[in-house]
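User: What would this chain look like folded?
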Amino acid sequence: MRIAVVVFDGFDELDAIGPLEVLRNAAAMGQVDLSVELVALDGAAEVTGSHGLVVRTDGPLDPDRTDLLVIPGGGWNDRGAQGAWAEAERGDLPAAIAAAHEAGAMVATVCTGAMLATAAGLTRGRPAVTHHDAVEDLRAAGAEVVEARVVDDGDLVTAGGVTSGLDMALWLVERHFGADLAAKVAAEIEHPRHGEVWRARSGPPPPG
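Assistant: Here's the prediction, encoded as structure tokens.
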């Protein structure tokens, strides 16, 4: 499985780095076919997060070579010149997200990364969640908002605010590689898993 965590100027650092660490730990600790890269849409060598952290990327996002695309949020509620809001307004990243999805990639979002998936046309009429300050934007865009920490609707998995990305990533490890590996990774990072994972097979989404 080829996983790409896409970053952009103004991304929330923990939204991206939390899942990245979980998934790379899974790759290192399990006998699994898994690679995890930190990528930028335009192949920028360095990207600056919303709290000033500068990260080096592994290269550009290639929608045709991505099995799972992880999308952080950051900056949506500020409506600033950098961050998820600015990326949604520009449209290039949502177009790449849509292209990856059309090519068969699963899309997983953390926090207001869900709004980038929304801009890509992926959440209308589907159960999803985002940071609590952006829930009304998500609902207004046509998603069926679910009150859960992680919402798994098959090829679209969304998580609530910031730290929920850890639980989402551990859930993705469990879903694809088994509960034992997910438990090993959770123990390694000393993260007690908590909060509900809502799955599509469990029935229609509750009102939220």
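The first helix runs from residue 13 to 29. If you want, I can go into more detail on any region.
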